Amino acid sequence: MANKKMLAIDLGASSGRGIIGGYDGNKITLEEIHRFSNDPVMTPTGFYWDTIRLLFEIKTAILKSTQEGGVDTLGIDTWGVDYGYLDKTGALLSNPFNYRDTRTVGITDYVWNKFAPWEEIYGVTGIQNMNFNTLYQMAADLRDRPWLVENADKMLFIPDLLGYFLTGNKQTEYTIASTGALLDAGKRDYADALLNKFGIRRDVFCDIVQPGTELGQLRLEEEMGNSTAKVVKVASHDTASAVLSVPALDEDFLYISSGTWSLMGIESKTPVINDQTLKYDFTNEGGVFGTIRILKNIMGLWIEQESRRQWAREGTKYTFDELSAMALASKPLQCIINPDDQRFATAGNMPKRIREYCKETGQYVPETVGEIVRCIFESLALRYRWTAEKLELITCRKYPVINIVGGGIKEEMLSQFAADASHRVVNAGPVEATSLGNIAMQGIAAGEFSDMWEARRVIRNSFDIKEYTPNAEMAGAWDEAYGKFCSLIGE
C-alpha cells in the first residue's frame, strides 16, 4: 500500500512530539509536525504530570496531521510505570504522580516487611528493584491515599489513559503493563497471587492486549479536523518501541536506547529469572511479538542534563555541543563515578555531587566543566561494558556489536567511548528510534510489514547508521579504568 501515513505520538519525560511517518513501499520518511514541552508540576501534595495539558497537545498534533492531508492511523508511546485512576463515570480522579515524586522514598523496606520480600517479588515479576515500580506506587496509594483507591473503578497506564481520552475505550497494552512489577513474567498476565498479598484489587485493571491491537476511532473528532485516523496500540512503552526500531541483522544483539536513561539489554524469547539476574538486578520487560527485553536501567544522560541546568542556574548556559567540545579537550580517564549511585538519581547540583563522590573515593576531583562532562561520559561507557559482560554471563552468548539508538547518539563522543571501553563495535542510529518503532508497529498492524524483522530491514535501509570501532591505542587505559570502576561498585 503505497504512501501509507502514520502518526507517532511520542511522549518523553521532558518533551513530546507528533511525527508523521510515510512509507512508500521501500523507505520510511519522518516529518515532525508538532513539538511541545512536558512540564510536570510540583504542588504541596506531590509531583504530578499535567495529563490534561498533554491531551491538548496530542489533539493539536492530530489537528496538524489532518491539515497536512491526514493520516491512516496513530499510536501513543510514553515512559513506563506511571498511571491514573478513573471513577465509575470514567472521570480522572487525580492527576497521575510523576515517578520522581518523593512518596516512594523508602517504600521498598515498607513493602518487603509488610507484604512480600524482594526475592519473592522478583521471582514472579522479573522486574528490577526501583522504588518507583508501579507495584510500589500502588502500595503507597493504599497507605497514603486509600480513599482514592476505594473510589477507583479502573487504573490505566499513561499511554492507555491518553488513548482512552481520545477514543473512550479502555485497554491495557502489554509492554507498558510489563514495566511496573504487576505481571507474572512467565504467564505474561497479572500476578494475581502477588496482587492479592498487597491488597490490590484485581478488578481495577483492564484486560491486557498485545501491540498491534486496534483501540478505536477518535471521539470529539471535530476538535482534530474531523480526522478519521484509527488509534492503534503500538508498543506503548517507549523503550519497547525503540527496541523494535533497532536495525539489527540477526537475533543476537545488544542494544542501548540512549537518552535521559540508557536502557541496555538484549531481546529474548523467554524471561530469564535466576540467581544471577537477581544478583545483578536485570529486568524482564515485555516486547513485541512475544519477546522479552532483558535489560538494565542505567542513569544515562540525565546526569549531564542536570549538570547543564545547574550551570545555567549559576549564570552560564552551555549548548550540548559546547559541553562535548570542552570534554574532548580534557584529559582522559582522570576520575570515574558509578552513574547509578542514588545520589545522582534526583534533581539538584550534579557537578557538586560528582566532585563529592570523587573526593570520597580518593580520586582526582574534577574542577572544570569539561572534566565533569568527560567524567560522566567515560563512566557511562564503563557501565555499558559492565552490563554487556553480565549479559554475556547470564545468557552464555557473545555480543560483539552494540547497537545504540535514540537521541543520545548525537553525543558522538559517548558512542566512541562505548566502543573503546567495551572493546566492541558500536553501530549508532537511528536517532528517532522510539517514533520509528511506534510507526513500524502501526505498519505491521496494517500489513505493510510482515513482521518485526522486515520492519527492521526497512529501517536500516531508510536511515544512516554510523559505525564506531575501538581505539586500540587506548585499550590498556580503558582496562585499567574498568578495574577501578568494578572496585567502586563492589565487584
CATH superfamily of the largest domain: ATPase, nucleotide binding domain
Strand content: 15-25%
Unreliable residue stretches:
none
- Please state the CA-atom Rg, rounded to the nearest Å: 22 Å
Sheet with the most strands: spatial strand order: 17-18-16-15-19-20-21
- What does the average pLDDT come to? 96
Q: How does the SSE layout of this entry go?
A:
Elements: E1 4-11, E2 15-23, E3 28-37, E4 41-43, E5 46-48, H1 51-67, E6 73-77, E7 83-86, H2 107-114, H3 118-125, H4 134-144, H5 146-150, E8 154-157, H6 158-167, E9 172-173, H7 174-177, E10 183-184, E11 189-190, H8 192-198, E12 208-209, E13 214-217, E14 230-232, H9 238-244, E15 254-258, E16 262-268, H10 275-280, E17 283-286, E18 292-298, H11 302-313, H12 320-328, H13 350-360, H14 369-395, E19 401-405, H15 412-422, E20 425-428, H16 433-445, H17 452-462, E21 466-468, H18 475-488
Parallel strand pairs: 1-6, 6-14, 9-12, 15-19, 19-20
Antiparallel strand pairs: 1-2, 2-3, 4-5, 7-8, 10-11, 13-14, 15-16, 16-18, 17-18, 20-21
Helix pairs in contact: 1-6, 9-16, 12-14, 14-15, 14-18, 16-17
